[in-house]
Structure formats: structure tokens, C-alpha cells
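Q: What would this chain look like folded?
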Amino acid sequence: MVSTSSGSLVRITERVPSISGAEIAAELSPPPQFEHASFDSYRTDPDFPSQQEAVERLREFAAVWRAQRPGGFFSRNRKPKAEKPGIYLDGGFGVGKTHLLAALWHGAPGPKYFGTFIEYTALVGALGYVPALALLSGAKLICIDEFELDDPGDTMLMTRFLGELMAGGTQVAATSNTPPNALGEGRFAAADFLREIHALSSNFQTLRIDGLDYRRRATEGGAVSVDDEALTRTVDALVAGGHTVALDDFDALISHLATVHPSKYVKLLSGVDVIALRGVRVLSNQNDALRLVAFIDRVYDAEIPIVASGVALSDAFDDEMMSGGYRKKYLRAISRLIALTTGELPPHD
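A: My prediction, written as C-alpha cells:
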């Protein structure tokens, strides 16, 4: 790390983070940009009625937590039961599924947990199955963002894990990040999700949310790229302005991500105000590309802007990837990369 009297220059590629099960559990809450998410703050698009319908159905799902007045077993004031203990939000990227998931979480009483599929599988891996189950048992609500179908072993592990939690009275809400694109662009495969977790499918109601990617609405085009000289000037000015900038060569970052478990990517970003990447190129290795997608998800959650040289980051996935089974993942990453490179940088000279 290079420090100045005002800011600092760091290298993500020099960070070797570790993370404990307790740390993972402590972080199981919505990302910063959804800290105040609510059903009222979700802006529905009148061109897509399913958005308002989803809000109404989620309010009904949350009704089970509303305070009840004292009453006996036959009281008409008894707390209503949810139609099903699980709810699944199915829709394209950028339609607000995570916002609605966070809004549901904020309205639930504790104990409650919110995390990505990767974070929950990492928790089980760090603590062990039985201790992780004991930790989350008794939760009123568990929210799973980006339920993955990439790894059948992890998927079935989570099927068993969630089945035991739901049997104990925990409600589960999930969004999906399924690889197959058989149902068309921008649509997650609800049927595939439910088939993969067949043991739980009868406990889930599915909400379809149609709409346009809100990031694309505001940021048409591609990610912004600058030349190396402009990148250097921007980094120098940001550091002089008191900011912590992570400057790395793109290839070095891609190689480093292969040595770090995705659950630890968030710790690679600790204290970073801006990410600067030099020499972005088109990726042709699927594993490299998927790691970049997972990394960008954490960068987006942390709301860290990116400045980059070389190929525009929105063009970093080759044509074969963009027509393959992980197409929707890459499309989501592209929309986030456009937002991260076209947003405002922190104030600098």
C-alpha cells in the first residue's frame, strides 16, 4: 500500500483475506444501498402490472408478522398464517427483486438473515452443517438473494438445509440467478429453480416480476473506458483528494480472484473508495468470467465506482459466453458495470 498525507493507493491483488463463520453470520443483512428499502419506496412501473401485484402479494406474505391483539385459540384476532412458508421472486435482472427482498426483511421481526446463496453455503462450509443449522434455527425469516443452480452439490445441500429450517417454522424468501436461458433473455427459470429444490417446491409460492432493467434505463450504451494516461491522472487526483484507490492490472486481478473464495470477495474491498483497473481485455475462459461476475456483484453491493482502461468492461465477455448457458449472469454483470463506470466518482481535483 502506498499512502500519502491525504489518501492511499492499494492493490487488491496484495490482499489475502480470511473470514470466519461468525463474521459471515454477522454480515447477513441487506447491502448498504438497500438499508432503507421498503415496499413504499419501490417505484413500480405502470407498464408492468406484475410489479404492483408482487408488492401486494409480499405485503400479504409479511402479514404473518403483524402484531396481534390478545385472544384465545378461537379469537378472530389470531395472527394469519402465510399461504406457504416460502416465496420466490422470479424476474429479469434490474427489476427490483433485491429491493423487494430487502423490504420484506426490514419488515420482519428478528432473528432474521439476508445473504446471497454463496454466503450461506460459505457459512455452512466454515461452521459445519450442524452448527450452521443451530445458528440459524429459530429465525423468523431467511432471505436468499441470487439462488445459484451452478453447483448441484451446493444446491442440494441448501435444499436439505432450508428444509430443516422451514420445518422448524422459519419462512424463506429467495430470488434466483439460474444459469439456463431457455426461457429467454432477462427471465430467470422459475421452473428450473423449483425442480432443483423439489423437496421444497410445494412450500414456495412464485411471484413473477416483469419489467426493464432500471440501470439500463438510466445508462444506455456501454461501460466507460479511458486511456492509460487518463487513468493515471484520475487515480493521482483521487488519492490527492484523500480517497483510497485500489489500482490493479486486469489480468492480475483475474488471476488473484482464482485464489480467493467468492465469499471472501467482500473483504477484498474493505476501505476502498474507488477501483481502478488497467488493461481490461476480453475474457475467453468461463471460470475467469464467472469469478469476475461474482466480484462485480460485491463491488456493486458496496457501491464502489470503477474507472478502467483498455476494452470497455461491458465488452469483457466473449461472444461464446454471451450466447451460452450463463448469458443472463453476464447480462446482469454488464448492466452493473455500466452503472459502476458511468456514475460519479468521489470529488477530486
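Residues 67-79, 179-188 have pLDDT under 50 and may be disordered.
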